[in-house]
Amino acid sequence: MDGVANLSDTAFLQSIQWRKSADTDLARAARKGDVSAFTARLLQCLPTGSPPTKSTKKRPATQGGLSTAEYLPAPPVKPLRELLHTSNGHSARKNGKSTAVEAASLAELLNSVAQKNNKTSPADLHALTELIARNGASLEQATLFSLWRTTLAAACEFTAGLTTNHEGDPAQTADEQLLQAGELPWRVGLLFADVKGSTKVRRRGRKVIRRELEDRTDGDGTPHATLLPRLGYWLAALVRSGQWANRFQATLWDDDLSMLFNDLLEQAIRLYRPSDSWAMSNGFSASPRSLFRAASQLAGSEFKIADLAFAWDQAPSNTRKRKTKSKKSASASTKPRLKKLAPSSQSDWANLACLRSDWETECDSIVVDHNGQFPQIDMTVLGRALINGNWDLKIQVDGKPVSVKRQWTAICWNTDEDGDYIELQQTFASGGRVERQIWLSRSTHSAMFADSLTGFSGKQIEYSSRLPLSDALDTQSDSGDRETRLKDGPILTRVFPLFLPQDRVHGTPGGCGIFGGDLVLKHVAAGQGLYAPIVLDWHPDRRRKPVQWRKLTVTEDGRILPGDVSAGYRVRLGEQHLLAYRKLQKSDLPQTVLGFQTFDETVLGQFDKNGDVTPLLLVE
Description:
This protein is an alpha+beta fold.
């Protein structure tokens, strides 16, 4: 269909090649060049909210959709955005038809699109297809035909550019590839299903969509960590593609992919934040809640999890009481089902872990992305952001820096009724290794971050790390000891650097404090290794409780072990009395710390009133 811009409407219709299975009346009118008859039949073939009938062959449309401008990597041009906004129920309508002002605006826009020399952008083509599918049946015939012609011409131009590289541009982000190589071909293939060549385009788009879902998720649906900054855009393309499959009664997923998509939604819900955002979603500002609700409206059991997660959300203020009551009824039946689902998850393949206390909105959560040079942390306490960014690390051995590589391996993951734990490891060619530990309590509103350095050949190790804090925090340090306090409104998080002496009167080359908006930890130790744990506590009942912590003596076979062989610490805060122990060098003999004997490499335990240790975490 090259060179169609200057054709008359009659000549344009006659230039189209139709599939043998095309609607008979539609193809006959086109071959005759009868614009009026063609448009009248086109109106009957467009998707509507009514079920299909034998006489009209109408295709059913889904209720509800996603805002095109809000969920695309780049928005369509402003006039198209405004038309989509008004066509979504934000303007007056007359007898189900567009008003004269809307028709004039659309006609002016389409004339501009048809005459411009530049190619129609993917976002503009997306918006044009959405206008036809969502509002075509309510447009005047002349306006509809102009929109249909412009969109078909733009679609032909776009798909022609995909013939040599339909796999997507490697320089593009994953969501951009999915939009341009998958969703848009799928859309135009469905919308122009009667046009010759549409089947090939549609199948190509479906192949890319399916491959994207399979290649970028683990077997349990966990999205790869590289998707997180723009997960919303990528997921929105899948949801929109599913909506169009329903709208045109087409098959997008097979049974296995339907289950995988269900699992993907389940994992995405774990990443949801009360601020109506996703963990680490720096590039996505649109509402995840709206996206999940759109997913839950799709037919099929694969989307039920999204409905579960938001079934008890408070209805918007303009929702009628009858609907609000219905949501409360759904809450009683669906929330217990969701509680059976584990709130935390971890995937070695995806380089991603989600430590989470429960399914409540104001939960405690730590999302860990260990795909980069430094693990990226997104931590919330009682639903509010605390830490967000790279957990930096610097090591010097005898004054020489050790280069940290882009290679972290999750060597341990544990989740139980006490809490979630992940341990990451990196080894160095020059000798030595570092393990990074993160533990989140299931019920006590506390957590531990720790670095364990072992096997370095040298006389002295200098260590520092940084945890980037939320901008909303007010920070302060205790003048008498080395506790640091992080305040966000009524929530107070207390930080205890166990590897440092509590009292400032005891000098130390290390430190713990706030610098440049980061929590900075420093430690200097003699020997081949060190252990640097910090405990964070934000329990509302313990915000004013006095704290005590100290280093413990660790023995083996009656002899005291140095700090580069084993290390133990305790911290008491109100009724919370914790033990943190780490074996830094291998030994077949049991070691004893404060009366507790163990063969394990790592112990995190709770002292009871009698001084006995109840293990919360044991790592062999």
